[in-house]
Amino acid sequence: MTQRTRSNRFIRRAGTALVAILAVVGLVAAYQFFFGAPGVGHFRSDSGRAGYVAAYERAMSALPPPSAVHDVPTRFGTVRVYEWTSPRTVDSVPVVLVPGRASGVPMWGENLPGFLPEHRVLAFDALGDAGLSVQAAPLTSTDDQALWIDDTLSGLGVETAHVVGHSFGGASAASYAKQFPEKVRSLTLLEPVFTFGYPPARMLFWASVSTLPGLPTDWRDTALAKVGGVDDYDSDDAMATMISEGSEHFSAALPTPSPLSDDELAALVMPTYVAIAERDSLVGSKKAADRARQLADAEVLVFPDTTHSLPMQAKDRLNSELPEFWRGVEQG
């Protein structure tokens, strides 16, 4: 037997062992994900928080400098909000950005250049998740998610907004629109998980694994790459580093959303833009798109050659189409 043959056999065995171990780990994570008791999101250690904040600040440095930073008190804790405005946009209908899991405000770096010219933009870190918001009370349902979003916008004097959400932020944005439809000028859902259906089992598995504490870095990077739909997870990238640090050091306390019922879909009558990835979607691709088309006033699009990282992968298209969508809503 050659050295190469022995090496290849070892790699195959190691790979099989890794998959088997991750399968067990994933079952534990999925149980915690669905059935864990409500709590308060927190960093597991001071050193872990320090590492995360350093990565967060590095990722934020790539964004346009905000006009203002707000820490807004709500009934569930304090929400960190970044505001971008100018003399031209100060009286515009604001665009509110609700981030995906563990992504926070920095995830919008590729999209802000397209949104800022015509709109005041407000972006915040989600309560219960990694970021600079500080949770003080448990979130027991997605209704609570809608309440803290409303508290935040009310605290900033926002009466109506174009609400945009990605991934879990999409589910939260949909919940907000369901509870406060009169405050949502338009709704944009980018790969919104648990909104039009449940995620595919294999994608839910990797998402669950990526959040486990104590996971070896290589394993976590593998899980995050699977969730993001990329072949290789660049651990040197600022956003990737921040997400990895948050996944490792922050214990999230987020309610698991339930897909919208037929009646809830029918009640969302505001103009809605839905973008779903063609492959490795956490939403369900074509099946989810078909269900989204039950919305009363929706533009539902499946973006070719995209994955769950759709806001970054389709930035040029979104940066063009969304301002046009908002313009049409306001003129109509």
Task: Tell me what you see in this structure.
This protein has helices at residues 3-35, 46-60, 112-115, 142-155, 168-179, 201-210, 217-228, 238-249, 262-267, 285-292, 310-313, 315-331, and strands at 42-43, 68-74, 77-84, 95-98, 121-124, 134-135, 161-166, 184-190, 250-251, 272-277, 298-303. The protein folds into two domains: 1-36; 39-331, Rossmann fold (3-Layer(aba) Sandwich), CATH 3.40.50. Helix 1 crosses helix 6 and helix 4 packs across helix 5. The chain has twelve helices and eleven strands. The protein is of the alpha/beta class and 332 residues long. The termini are far apart. The strands form two sheets. Strands 2, 3, 4, 5, 6, 7, 8, 10 and 11 form a nine-stranded mixed beta sheet that branches. Strands 1-9 form a two-stranded antiparallel ribbon. The radius of gyration is 20 Å and the shape is globular. Helices cover 44% and strands 16% of the residues. Mean pLDDT is 86; it is low at 3-37.
- Main sheet properties: 9 strands, mixed
SSE order = HEHEEEHEEHEHEHHHEHEHEHH
CATH architecture designation of the largest domain: 3-Layer(aba) Sandwich
| CATH homologous superfamily classification of the largest domain | Alpha/Beta hydrolase fold, catalytic domain
Question: Span between N and C termini?
Answer: 74 Å
Gyration radius, rounded: 20 Å
The portion of residues assigned to helices is: 40-55%
Q: How many beta-strand elements?
A: 11
> How many domains make up the 3D coordinates?
2
Backbone structural class = alpha/beta
Top-tier CATH class of the largest domain: Alpha Beta
The number of distinct helices, counting runs of at least 4 residues, comes to 12
* Mean pLDDT over all positions: 86
Return the CATH topology of the largest domain: Rossmann fold
Low-confidence stretches: 3-37
How large a portion of the residues is in β-strands, by DSSP E? Answer: 15-25%
Shape: globular
